[in-house]
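Molecular record:
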Amino acid sequence: MAIQVFVDSDACPVKDEAVRVATRYNLHITLVSNQGMRPIAGNNIKQIVVGAKFDEADDWIVEHASEGDIVITADIQLAARCLKKGCKALNHTGSLFTGQNIGSALAMRELNAHLRETGEIKGHNPVFSKKDRSQFLQSLDMLIQKST
């Protein structure tokens, strides 16, 4: 069976780009969200809106993704769960999560959460740039080429 692409869609700035690349390779892509999405037409596109329960979209993705599939997410914990299933995980800036880097990414996530809780740092994310978008497109394209 061909690989599929799953997108953790809530607050994902590269949904349209992921759809465009998946369509170019004739891959099925599923966008999963806790809230409504703007409809996107296409034979290869499925949009799933799950309930608002915490991690419900993540749970849906983990349940439906299979080994070799590509999951696009900024959620490091979801990426770790997908890697355990044999999926590939890519964030919206084009960085690939791997077995070698997921542990340090989880540790940094925990450290930053602690620092925000104690007031040591503010919870601002860096601005998503044109360079990030370009890097994502390049990374997704290369990942699909290697996977098919």
The domain at 4-98+129-147 is CATH 3.40.50 (Rossmann fold). The longest strand covers residues 28-33. The longest helix spans residues 130-147. The chain has one domain: 4-98+129-147.
